[in-house]
Predict the 3D structure of the following.
Amino acid sequence: HASEAHRTDLMTITRFVLNEQSKHPESRGDFTILLNHIVLGCKFVCSAVNKAGLAKLIGLAGETNVQGEEQKKLDVLSNEVFIKALVSSGRTCILVSEEDEEATFVEPSLRGKYCVVFDPLDGSSNIDCGVSIGTIFGIYMMKDSHEPTLEDVLQPGKNMLAAGYCMYGSSCTLVLSTGSGVNGFTLDPSLGEFILTHADIKIPKKGKIYSVNEGNAKNWDGPTAKYVEKCKFPKDGSPSKSLRYIGSMVADVHRTLLYGGIFLYPADKKSPNGKLRVLYEVFPMSFLMEQAGGQAFTGKQRALDLVPKNIHERSPIFLGSYDDVEEIKALYAAEE
Ligand code: AHG
Ligand code: MN
Ligand code: MN
Ligand code: MN
């Protein structure tokens, strides 16, 4: 019976990636080993998040990060877990984390050919109230086998080999693309394995939801203000869109990917480059959106074409359903 086959044919994320790897034999399994270490980090953070309230992991760590944000205990813990897991994989040479001012250059004896950029815990402001948070990551191949330099991570997002996120919510869901589509895996805690649950995710061409922090409305530029106005008071008599904003990018993007719609973190007068960081928030989510048939725009260009100049650079971002992003691109084009 089909259901029987389904129950016994467990497609774990490791098996899935190995199948993918067969398309890149030259990688000799290095990518699979790297991914397994990222998955290990996600499993650890998932269990820490689930018992945060009990294990005194709520609250501040008493430090601030390069972003000027007060670090939460879980920010610091998850950062340490991912750095250690990635270094011990023996497959990385440079690591960039939201929580570390400088990039980590892996010691030669443990050096591999991949560069990983990551946000160990996204949506930290939601930790203490139990709202979904996540981890975001992107993977580059170093430019060529010379001494690793920052140039190896200051690459446009279109050069990423893979990107993904893990959302710690009612279930632990890992969404991944290695460049041929997007797939979602859910952690089965009884097996400790991520099982394929969302095969070949495609974002609806157009959505009914817009997702933005309306509290910044007084500082928005013209095109953003016009677009949001259009969502609320459509001229052509179509129904208004619904507003959904969780404040964790991972959760807002996951809903957008599955239900359709648009997520916006625009520039505003106070922060002309918006808030979200290019390497480990904008690029991975833009990569996933394009792989799922959507698109991602910075207000000036295709997000994945951006070439970052520093590792914590920010950019405005408009991403989601193809047709919805087309509308905001038209408004910015008219502004030029
Ligand atoms: P992080 O917790 O990793 O610093 O990221 C927080 C980001 C992102 O998750 C979310 O979309 C955005 O901050 C929310 O910002 P506002 O509270 O300004 O809306
Ligand atoms: Mn932060
Ligand atoms: Mn973040
Ligand atoms: Mn973070």
